[in-house]
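Q: My labmate handed me this sequence with no annotations at all. I'd like to see what the chain might look like in three dimensions before we decide whether it's worth expressing. Could you predict it?
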Amino acid sequence: MAETLSALTEQLLNHFSEEKLALLSTIDAETGVPSQNAISWVQAVSSGKIRFALDQRSRIVTNVKSNPLATITVFAGGSVHAISGRVSVVVDALEGVPFKLACMDLNIDAVRDVMFYGSRISAQPEYEKTYDKRAADKLDGQVFDAMSKA
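A: Here is what I predict for the chain of 150 residues:
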């Protein structure tokens, strides 16, 4: 069984240096059941904190305001890592972004390697934006810049 860490390793910090797919798990505010969403505006602020942005109207915002416990799952270093903690709202609306995006921090309590025994991830999950590439790149730049200033 892999050890539980209380902060991101250097390898995981590096993983968050560019836009990556992450899975965010929260507890649904209405039903109380686990809820999972794919997000990509995610960055490590420090070894103890991960910042992310999402649409203000997202159900995730309601979920974390009702119950701040959450887990961000990432595929990095040939494995799967579950990063758990409490979410706090940094700002309700990021400045300098054309959409109303909330900015939140996951204050890390535990980092676990959750890949099943005797295996490794052989290829990183990939995705592509299905709208105008230039517009997507511009928006991503605006969001990450605003997140770093929040």
